[in-house]
């Protein structure tokens, strides 16, 4: 761990000593993770990185020790914006925002909750999407991003354990089905029909594909947005099993209205997140995950003015629902025969 660089930014170094050791161990065990920071009560207390390691491949993605101030600024701004995003998602009554993933073409940023005021932030540098002219990849399965995501989520869980707090199952990684996307084969469909209560609307030719994507055990809402307008959507908020997992005041129509409005407005949040990510990693922002205590909201860029939005309210299936969204987005981009251009 001799090549790891530690920077203390607040408080006495000895106060952070135990946490710093955990961060250093996590970096040593996760070669694809290059930069970590701890955000506590409004400020970053320390950072740990591998940018001085000659064996690290971060430089290939434009990372360098000289850019440490930019990485620090990006992480600080992301932690600050998470508070605002948490307020935006609060009306859905699915709990606090506990994990954020910003997946760009040449790297990714991560933010994982330890407590409401303490966060772990991380950056992974490297090729995180298909190179120009190559077929698009299923983004949540890109090894660099997935491995870094799992590692940072594990670090957040470990820090919670030290505080005698239970796991939040960030990313649903602790309960991800071993056989890939989709509910486990031994998990019976609710009410005998995983698409009971389906409602699909809109003029988009993608409506049928959005509807086929849904499963009451996993994804319960999917939408296509073009030029700021929802052109098609499908949901299972009328499903009995889905409704039973929602608060009494959040009926099907209220859920449908909230997520429909969020889908149309998410591009505003993505633009802000993209501005933050560009300080740290190169390329366009292609995928965003807003993981809450009960599920997640997904954003997938298709082109300069259109994207997909998906929602799960099952924390156990956050990662597999993400895979399902990624497969559809990849299929649509492959059908276009070339990566979406600005």
From TrEMBL:
The protein's name in its UniProt record: Roadblock/LAMTOR2 domain-containing protein
Region (Disordered): 172-199
Annotated source species: Actinomadura graeca
Basic and acidic residues bias locations: 184-194
